[in-house]
Design goal:
It is a single chain. This protein is of the alpha+beta class and 245 residues long. It has a single domain, classed as Class II aldolase/adducin N-terminal domain (L-fuculose-1-phosphate Aldolase, 3-Layer(aba) Sandwich). It is built from 9 helices and 7 strands, in the order αβββαβααβαββαααα. A 7-stranded mixed sheet has the order 3-2-1-4-7-6-5, with helices on both faces. A hairpin with a 3-residue loop joins strand 6 and strand 7. Helix 2 crosses helix 5 (145-152) and helix 3 (104-110) crosses helix 6 (173-196). It is globular.
Length: 245
Amino acid sequence: MPQTEQELREDLAATYRIFDHLGWGELIYNHITVKLPGDEGHFLINPYGLHYSEICASNLVKVDINGNIVEPTEHFVNPAGMLIHSCVHAARHDLTCIAHTHTTAGMTVACQQGGLRPDNFYSALLHNRIAYHDFQGLTVDENEKEALVASMGTDRMMMILRNHGLLTGGRTIAEAFHNMWVLERSCQIQTSVDQSGVPQIQVSDEILSKGEALMKVQSLGQPAGSLEFAAMKRLMDKKDPSYKD
């Protein structure tokens, strides 16, 4: 069933707190958005200037698809965030939630010529599921929107922004979170393995081709990321339920 705006506000605020808990924050930067029900094209984004630990349901900022703030607020929105999220939301109506990070592991892999290799437990599951976008500097140039959308394509939910960071989307907030978790873990393991300096075991194409089918078995028919996100929300409820305010 479609969620109400208040439910989406609480889930998005919880997601910011989860990202902070996992160490995925970046001072006051980066952004996670969720598209609201209706035909207006409105979505919610974090207030620019607040730490992820400060974000709650009531201070999320509502904007339109062109980046205009549509409700009274004392806050600003991040120009780079508005460019990235507005163009992807406008082009990919299947993606309700979009998340962007600058984690050390994600940026390290984004700076490597080969990108993410399908040679660890998690990255093998992402084989042929990741898009790439070439670096064009700080993402505040309107001319980059078309290239971002073209790089994302029509069916990919994960993208590595070269020299920059990670971007994931999902049909739900839970799916976008889980996509980011798997992508981030893939990058963490790759950077750790690279530091070992020892020869690496390659995964065969036959095994890689089974990834999608194996994931369907593992999911037990549940919506993507729903079990994982619910578990993390329960943790946030115990740690600090003020995200609901």
